[in-house]
Structure formats: C-alpha cells, structure tokens
Input
Amino acid sequence: MITIFLITGFLVLSYLVYPLWLMVVTSQNGKEVETEDISSVSLILLSFNGKEYLKDKVNFLLQELSCFQRFELIIVDDNSTDGSRELLDNFRGIRHVKIIGKTVQKGIPDSMNTGVKNAKYDSIIFCDQRQKLSDHIIQRIVQPLKYENVGAVSGCVYHFDQENRYSMIRKLENFIKCKESEAGSLIGVYGPFYAIKKQCYSEIPDYIILDDLYLSLRILKTQQIRLREDCQIIDENFSTLNDYKRARRYLSGFLQIMREKSIISDLNTRQKIMLIWHKYLRLLIPVSLFICYVSAGVFIPRGVEYAILFSVLTILGLISVLPGRFSFTYLVRINILYFIALFDVFIKDILLHRQVAVQSVISLPDSENV
Output
C-alpha cells in the first residue's frame, strides 16, 4: 500500500517538477534575426454548427483585422446544419471576406487544409468560433512571426472562463506552456487561436484527431513555437467543457500521435523528453490514484485508517460529480473521467487490433494458413 502511494506521489511530483526542469534547459538564442513587420494576414475561421457565436465573432475579427494594410477573413463552414450557412450568407460580398461552404462534413483537418489553400498571405491565423478573445489579439499574435526562427505563435487560454470561474489546472498548464515557450519548444499550441507561417504548415491528414498537436510537432522539426500570454482566449464554463467525450477524444488523439513514428523521430532528444513528460506521463496519474483507492478498500480489514481513507476518497469522488465552483473537486472529476476514458480507449484499441489480426490471418491463402 505504501509503495502504491509513493509511486502516485512520484508521478504527481514529476509533473510539478517539469516546469522547474524547463527553467534549467531554457535555450539562450541571443539576438534573433528579424524580418519585416507583419502587415498582411489571412485569418481562417473554422465554422461548424456555431450559429449562436458567428455574428459577433465575425464582426469582432473584422474590427481586429482592420489595422492591417492587407488582410482577408476566410470562413470555412463544414456543412453546418443549424442555420450557420444561412447566417454566413449575410457576409457574402463584404470586402476582405471569403466564405467557403462545404457540401459534405469532413472534419477540422480538411477545413484547415482548405483554408490554407485559399489563403493569399504568408501569415496565417487559425480561429475557432466558440471562444471570446481579448482586444488587439491579432496584432499581438503575429508579432513574433517576424523572427526567422519562429514558425508559430499560440494564444493563451485564460484561467478564468466566461462565467469568471477559476481553473487551477489551467493556471498550472499556462505556467508550464510559458516555460516551454521560453525553452523554444512549445509542445502543442492552443487550438482555438494561433498564428503560423504558411511555409511551416504541413497538410493534416483527415484522420488526425489532435490537429493542433500534430501540426505543432511538425513545426518543431525546424522552427520554434512561442506562447503569447497577453493573447487571451476566454472559454466557456470549464466544468461543462471537460466531459467524458472530450477526455476520450484527447486520449485517443494522444495514442494516435504515438503511432505517428515519423513525427516522433523528427523531434530532437529534448523535445521527445518534453513530449513524454508533459503529455504522456501525467496520464498515469489517474491510473495510480484509482489503484490507491481500490487498495484502500482492500486493506480496510487491516485497520480503521484504511476505512477512513477509503471513505474520504469515496466522498470526494461523489462530490466531484456535482456542479460547483471548487477547483479541488473539479480536479478530482477530471482524474475520474480520464481514468474511465483511458480504460475505454485502451480496451477498444486492443480489441480492434486483435480483430484486424484475426481478419488478416483469415484472408491469407490456404497455403500460408497451414
């Protein structure tokens, strides 16, 4: 039992120590080579069933873009069915606005690829429809692109949501990403809003789940990725966003990236360590916490302290599923969701590969089956 708790403590401590390690390995680039200031921007707004956000978002973006000498707003709609396409028709014919409506829903990667193919300028910004953005965000996000060694710049998801709820996890994640940025290797941009040089964009396969992480790892092969803390992305209620469906999507995406051997092999040693330490090691924490919980239940006959521990953990788990403003119960709920999703994803993945293996054997010629 003590061993299990020590392992869990080690995993949690390792995650907390990661930003301290980043401070030690932070690269000193010296004077960076600047090119001309960014005066031309192509902003790609990804639209799908977000009618309630579109009007305000498009008007905000046009106002923000107006400070550039040359700009365009490309809206790629992924065959919305909620009236978004009809709403976007109101913006057709407006100068600088280009609307691309797909007749078949093909997903985010296809929308991104379509937007880039239609972009005229070298500085590209990807933007989601749901989140609110801070003022002057477009001017700020593209500024670091003037440096030759910078391939992409990420906005920062603010640690208060639109309902002014505080997220301790988001605050920690932002701190970690800030230190990664200082080290020159931000492992994964924030998908809702980021800028990229067109020459650094790699076409994203349609099957990719975590398009922002995939693209980031491709960029890191030759360029740096920076974070702009003053480019704030204000999301909706954190507690409602982090549901089981989202947790399962992230885990499936992480597993998928692990299998993209060409991406991992292109990273240098430090970047590989950062990827594993930041993105994958923390996935073991929910598993170890669950083992601690089960172990406490098994050891109840050995002492009242185990019964107390098991009861406390059970109560925390039950409280965590209730709506509330407490960061600690929110943290517990996320770990529960990720453990269930982790179990679900790996079991289905194992069964899927077993099924594929069986089918491949059945399809072999009789002479090879002997």
In short: Residues 327-362 form the longest helix (36 residues).
